[in-house]
Amino acid sequence: MFSRLPIVLLLVTLAAGGAPAQQRHRITAAVSYVSPGTVYVQAGKGRGLAEGDTLVVLRQYRKIGMVVVTATSTSSSSAGIVSQSEQIVVGDSASIEKILHIEPAASAPSVPGRTRDLATRSETNVTGRVALQYAGSGGSSSFAASGMPAAVFRLDVDHIAGTDLMLTINGRTSTDIVQSRSSDFHEVRLRMYEFTVSSPGYNRWYGFNLGRFFSGSAGGIGPVDGAELYLRAGRFTFGMLGGSQPDYATSRVDTRLQKMAAYANFRWGGEVFASSSVTLAYGQLLNAGNPDRDYLYFQAMLRPADGFFFSGSTEFDLHVMQSGERVRKLRLTNTFVTLMYTPPFQWVSLSAGYDAARSIYLFESMKFFPDSLMDRTLREGFRGSVSFSLPARIILMGSGSFRLKTRTTGPARTLSGSARAADIFGSGIGAGAAMADIRGLYTSGSQYTVDCDAWFANGSGVALRYDRYLYRVQESGEQLVATTLGISLNQRIAQTLYAAVSYDRIWEQENRSWRLYAEMGIHF
Questions:
Q1: Total-model pTM
Q2: Which terminus of the chain is less hemmed in, N or C, by CB atoms within 10 Å?
């Protein structure tokens, strides 16, 4: 089947000389603790981190932020938050690939007691996190109370048995509990997001993934239950993967849906997370061996100049359905673009983007995918933001999102502004305020938020938040108000043990409801 893929894999072997070699070494560590503006990770000098290193924060192979190491100890580091598209939380991963210069063996005589270079280390290293969670909600007598106890776990094992093999396990088990006057409902389910044995082969010309994984070079292909092989030739990486498509709703293995792809990646610039790269991939989805979808996937991460960062991806379906038949025609589907700029003085940063999600028709399955997640009225439009970092750790931010009018729907937009001060006068207390003006397709209103937090030297913290949303239902003209009062508590119980609780009380018209979230975990 792979013979039909249009990308030809190349293999180039380069001879090694006697000059100092460059070897790439990946350092990945779990986020162990988060305070305002600072992230703590489970890696330090002993694994090669140094002050000034820039780490990418990942969540299930999605980049959600960047941090810079400000202080290191033997086994842990603290880092300042540079940017985050989502809130960084305990359990996220921070990663960097460092290019190390390794002297040839002949010019590096052994020294008694000398520590081996980090790039040649082969000690097995185990890190991870296990946590118990509970999320619950309830309301007036007309609403059912629900709760979701859960256990989350992540395990990363590097250099298994002295090799460069890596094991990654990332999953969650949960139980839904709904209690009403008529019945109680319980359902236990296991979600396995990753179960991967891999060999990155940073110092070789090949690498592979086995199990349930996301491709590091072509993440837009999505999760795969199968195998991936990739080959390196200078700045190029060529790869192919195949297997089945995990069920998105249940995370179960579904062998009826097969997936295969081939890709070419070109990377240039500095270290891996400070470089630019482009990827072109061809993918197929099959249902019981029959074609469901074939498409091209393009991804780019570019740093054209100092301070600029561009990230974008797009897909092109190669066949469409016309008059009940599958015909060859190029159709643009999902496109996501982000451009960020930070001037040399770094006290201001700008970002702009465009998101456009399209329904994807699966021919053999005879359905649109994903059915429930693709609301074009919410997933298409322009966005932009500007932030200012002022003295005394004050941050001002303004943002907006805009959706243009279409033939079937009107325009929509959201404008918001916020101000926040952290560690006011060195007290460990922070405070902020935000306001948003929302003009949606179905409701319009204004939202006002104020919050404050306090963090203490023993790792404990408390935060309070007040939110008021005044909105009008456009179809009926009804005026509504929703008020929320929330409190969050965080406690670092020991070096590796932590706990967190948050509670919200919501008042809306005649209904009063509540939300509760609690987590206790250990990282190692």
A1: 0.70
A2: N
